Amino acid sequence: MDQSEHGSHERNKLRGAIAEMTLRLAGLSEKGQTGTDAQRVERLETSWQALIALIQPEPEPTRRQCPHCRGQMRENATRCLHCLCKSVPPAAEAAGAA
Fold first, then answer.
1. Where in the sequence is the domain holding 93, given as residue range(s)?
2. 28/70 same-domain check
3. How far is residue 9's CA from residue 1's CA, in Å, rounded to a whole number?
4. Whole-angstrom Cα distance, residue 24 to residue 40?
5. Which of 2, 37, 52, 69 has the highest CB neighbour count under 10 A?
6. Closest C-alpha to 10, from 60, 62, 18, 63
7. Where is average pLDDT lowest: 14-18, 72-76, 84-88?
8. Residues 73, 64: contact at Cβ < 8 Å?
9. Same domain, 12 and 31
C-alpha cells in the first residue's frame, strides 16, 4: 500500500467518525429516539472519544507571563504577541548563564 492509499484510508476513518458524531448530536434533540437521555449521551461521548483518537490533537503549549506587559506567551517565544517586546525564553537564559 503506497502512502496515498494509507492517507485515503485514514481520511475515510476520520470522515466516518465525523458522520457518527453528527448522527449522535442530531439524536440528542430528536423526539422518539430509542434509549434514555443518559444512554444517548453515553453514545455521544463514545463517538467523541473515537474522533479525538483519530485526530490526535497536540497538547497545549506551555505558557509564561511576558515580563513587560504580563500577557500570556508561549514558553519558548522570543517576542510577546501582545506588546511585541522581545523576551528571552527561560531555557535560553539558563543556557547563557552556564
1. 63-97
2. no
3. 10
4. 7
5. 69
6. 18
7. 14-18
8. yes
9. yes
Cβ atoms of 87 and 67 closer than 8 Å: yes
pLDDT at 1: 42
**What cell was used for 34?**
430509542
- In a 10 Å sphere around its CB, with 0-12 CB exposed, 13-18 middle and 19+ buried, how is residue 96 labelled? exposed
Distances in Å between the Cα of 22 and the Cα atoms of 16, 18, 19, 42 are 10, 6, 5, 15
For the cut 70, the answer to whether the pLDDT of residue 58 exceeds it is: yes
What confidence tens digit (pLDDT) does each residue in 9-46 have? 888 888 998 888 888 888 777 666 677 878 888 888 88
CA 94 from chain centre, in angstroms, equals 31
Residues 47 and 90 in one domain: no
Vertex 62: Cα angle to 60 and 67 (nearest 5): 140
Q: How far is CA 46 from the centre of its chain?
A: 17
Cα–Cα dist 55/92, whole Å: 33
